[in-house]
């Protein structure tokens, strides 16, 4: 029980179900507990309702609430929660980097080593 | 006395001159614009004989719209004030046809300074006007065509950008699922499945590289490739990239090493320098047979730049293709047919965006040496 309590909880915000599932599976393999939100509004609801996430993996191309807006809102509402930004759009990734609000930025598609390094760099070991 | 003796002859000479000029219409008007004299040039240009026009107002040479606007008398008033006036515009011949005239009206004064009339010289510039108009029309058409091309170019860049983004999303999922299987999400995999997954993974990476290169090309061509310039250690980048290729080199039984790497800070975008080296090392390994060698070196050059070289013992580049290998979609004849011919074009553009140069020296059958320069930190 004590071990379970220390497992870190991550929220994956990704609208593409395949990418969301692949990221969730990988994170679970690393030992994290994972929840998923397929749009920005659900993500905000989850983050506000369950203020128990240790980190957020955020895709920038989202319906409802744009990723960059969600990034800013998350950092404002939950400044202690680190956010790792993922995007297939170089321009969006560049804009996110310029905002300097996230703890890491990875361009899609990413390799295993790159992903693991970014996740552990942002959230620490599971 | 001499002047007086010569005066009649001068007048005669002047009259002869006046009457022999056919390219210019020259005539004199009184202060109200009534024609007083008429030369053969005026007759040829405007179609009136002297007896038809002497005594008439010069305003009849003007378009009715110009007459309504008061243009003829405005020109006379201006000439009276300033001494002379020039103008260009459409004028009307006796037969109603139009010609483009370039005119000078000069005010004439008596010895007391009172206005006695005007001298008017007209040149028919219709041909020049038509040429200018045609040139204007052609320029307009060229501008329109250029605008259209620019729009198409922007649309092409946007289409490639959208298409590549849309391709990246499913590719991310495919790559992530393959990686997850290798990581053990579905437990231990049978050897055959590992083999097939390896091939799927290898080919997925090829598509990803192609998509990334297409996006880079479209960005470079649209002028949207921005560098994040920073102080970058050449030796660190070389060491990191060589490490990335150690596994691939082992698999292909090729020796890869960084040799005589000089550590100098350059002003560059680290990710893009890595990409340049990645492209050059990937090519070097691709074209080098088993048992060969790939070496990365760097040295300072006189013009405050660092030169980085990637030397291989591969099949080399046939003579005449050393420049062309950097062109888009160009593939020099070689035993290896992999690749779209975009990698070196992107590489060249990235080096040049840094203010550097890239070139290749090659000996067919013995290998190639690609060199590129980067500016040192000032």
Tell me what the structure shows.
The complex is a heterodimer of chains A (126) and B (378). With 126 residues, chain A is α/β, with parallel strands linked by helices. Chain A contains six helices and five strands; from the N terminus they run αβαβαβαβαβα. In chain A, helix 2 links the parallel strand 1 (9-13) and strand 2 (33-37). Chain A is globular, with a radius of gyration of 13 Å. The mean pLDDT of chain A is 88. Chain B is an alpha+beta fold and 378 residues long. Helix content of chain B is 48%, strand content 21%. In chain B, helix 8 runs parallel beside helix 9 (270-287). The longest helix of chain B is centred in the middle third of the chain and has 58 residues, at 126-183. The N and C termini of chain B lie far apart (85 Å). Chains A and B meet through helix 2 of A and helix 6 and helix 7 of B.
Set down the secondary structure blueprint.
The complex is a heterodimer of chains A (126) and B (378).
Chain A: H1 2-6, E1 9-13, H2 17-30, E2 33-37, H3 40-49, E3 55-59, H4 67-77, E4 83-87, H5 90-99, E5 104-107, H6 112-123
Parallel strand pairs in A: 1-2, 1-3, 3-4, 4-5
Chain B: H1 2-20, E1 24-29, H2 40-46, H3 50-53, H4 64-68, H5 71-82, E2 84-92, E3 98-109, E4 115-124, H6 126-183, H7 191-221, E5 230-233, H8 234-251, E6 255-258, E7 265-268, H9 270-287, E8 293-301, E9 305-312, H10 343-353, E10 358-363, E11 367-375
Parallel strand pairs in B: 6-8
Antiparallel strand pairs in B: 1-4, 2-3, 3-4, 5-7, 8-9, 9-11, 10-11
Helix pairs in contact in B: 6-7, 7-10, 8-9, 9-10
